[in-house]
Amino acid sequence: MNEQPLPWFSDGFGYTTGVTGGLVVVSELSPEMGEESVAVVGEEDPEHDTLALARPDIACLTLYIDPDNPDELLEFEALGLGEELLHGARKRFGLTRNVALLKRRARRGLFEYLRGDIDASTAAEKIGYAQLVARQILEAQERFLESIDQYLMNTTMAEPGYFEAHAQRYARRYDLNADEIAEGLEEHRRGLLASRIEESERYETVYQILEEIGQEWEPTIVQAVADAALDYPHVVAPVVVEGYDSVSLEATELRTILQDRLEAARRALKELTYDPIEAEYDKVLQDLQRELNDVDSRGHVRDVDIPLIDAPGAAHEPEISDTVRELDDPLDRILNHAFRMEGNFGGLVYWTSVDGEQSARWLVNPTIPDDAVDDETYHELWERAYVGDRLLTQLYRRVEEPVNRGRGDYTCPLCLLSAGWCGDGHCAYRPVREAINEQSERLVHELTELEILAT
Ligand SMILES: [Zn+2]
Questions:
Q1: 426 alpha carbon to ligand 1 midpoint, in Å?
Q2: Structural domain tally of the chain?
Q3: Same domain, 23 and 114
Q4: Do 364 and 12 touch, CB atoms closer than 8 A?
Q5: Does a cis peptide bond (omega within 30 degrees of 0) precede residue 238?
Q6: Domain of 36, in residue numbers
Q7: What is the model's pTM?
Q8: Looking at CB atoms within 10 Å, which of 113, 233, 376, 383 has the fewest?
Q9: What spacing in Å lies between the alpha carbon of 59 and ligand 1's midpoint?
Q10: Same structural domain for residues 366 and 419?
Q11: 301 C-alpha vs ligand 1 centroid, how far in Å?
């Protein structure tokens, strides 16, 4: 491991990130402000009931893990992290990119309206339809993705030695018995499996197909089949991207398309002449993509530039995996994996504990050079995306539940995660916050009309 410290990276709220040998080390994050944290991550996502939530469309992973609870850390690292990284990795494929484009359109609509560039009804159309179609895509692919994740995670966790390696690290760190930990994990996995089998009706078709392919092919190839199916080439309306095909689809149509693409990928795999054991993921995926996506010169949504989700992938360093695993602190391992392993998140929201005081924080991927994106840093890009995305959530809470209207102001999403302010002694998004507080009523009204029209 390279002991030479890299330059210090500053994150978004007056904390400095300790980066040693290219790794983020949480205990070296130094708070520069003494104010108490006001952050409650649960407030940001009142609906959360899991240890983490991945939003690949804004390259964000939110962790709800209690940093002082070894059981939660272990459970997430051994049973959850792999699945979140899988979600992150889907940014390479059509449907996730599609959602990212739609969400970007909605955020731009919001900021343009707040700047006074467009009026409320234009903004509502821009934001409303993009949000609606994004929701449709997410809904249409939900079961499909869950089935794939289940299959892949079950396969990974069934590999010999998978739990033992995790158990040994935790036993060392917390002075526990490694065999007991490994047994506990295995029991937990069986429990998960059992509860998922109960739900099997939900997953039947997709899971069955993957299992059948898996009887002959290696798990990575099963993944290539699923990924190829998800790589739907067209931009789903209403986003018009010049040079690309746009289509308008209902969620049910999209569900059928996914199913058909999976069947088509399975048939195409049979025609390929690879050895089921030796075949490489990349080659099989490329062949399947060619078979499934006959787009000629019309372009593929994969080729649309989306720096927010693509820039972290450019910092992809698979060889660092072993170095990350050697880190002693579980949270350090989790953060570094989330930034560096395939799936590469652009930013993380997480809880940390300093002298028994817990607080929420965010951290932008420090492996990305500061001049990564056009005329702004990746830092600025990610933070603006996060702020826009979360403000839209606050806005929609008012659109969907009239009881929330007129109840309290909008909160700066980054201040909510800060010890004090998100900027240096002030809220960096104050103008945005003030504008949305002043102007949102009209926009909420227009969006409400649009929602009624859509249903
Ligand atoms: Zn702020």
A1: 7
A2: 2
A3: no
A4: yes
A5: yes
A6: 1-64+306-455
A7: 0.86
A8: 376
A9: 20
A10: yes
A11: 33
